[in-house]
Amino acid sequence: MSKSAPSFESSDLREFGEVLRGRRTINLFLQTPVPAKLVRDAIEVATWAPNHHVTEPWAFYVLGRQTKAICLDLIRDIATAKKDAQAADFKVKSWAEKPGWLVVTCRKSKTAILQQEDLAACSAAVQNLTLYLWRAGVGSKWTTGDITRDSRFLDIVGIDADQEIVVGLICYGYPKVTPDQTRKPVTDVLKELP
Ligand SMILES: Cc1cc2nc3c(=O)[nH]c(=O)nc-3n(C[C@H](O)[C@H](O)[C@H](O)COP(=O)(O)O)c2cc1C
Fold it and tell me: Does 178 sit in the ligand 1 pocket, CB within 6 Å?
């Protein structure tokens, strides 16, 4: 006897869709600390992302206050060298107001195909993490700015550049402002083949 397919019009599913749709990149955060247990839970959930050959290529580095302070000095140095002291002040202030800092890396793979797959898996892991946090009321911003490509940053965090690639520095905290966003209608990006 064939079983009927489960309903796709439940309020649970609609709510789930709203979480996926509603997550926004957050720039401005409240200074309320995010519980360490919540962040650890989000990282655990992140590791359930699909990953080809179950390579589990990710690593997560949660930065504490001391490490953040060293990174802020580096951000100042980078911004001063790139622009000027005033621009650096602005940048440091903006980063200092981001409460949580988490670096996600991907293990370097043996072949280009594996590397592509492993990086895709790490992106899925970041999305798991940010959606879990979002559902708990915590916003985040995935960044791949200058600092994430600076060898001094890798040294501060203890990332081995021969073994790992930085996928992103994820800042997180309770949102102060949630910006609007738009997306193209699905008909613009969907091709349904016969
Ligand atoms: C791989 C990746 C790198 C990103 N790097 C940055 C970044 O360096 N700076 C930034 O402001 N946003 C960065 N973002 C966030 C995007 O700008 C953001 O997702 C986009 O504006 C859409 O907004 P939404 O996330 O609210 O939908 C990055 C996102 C991804 C996926």
Answer: no
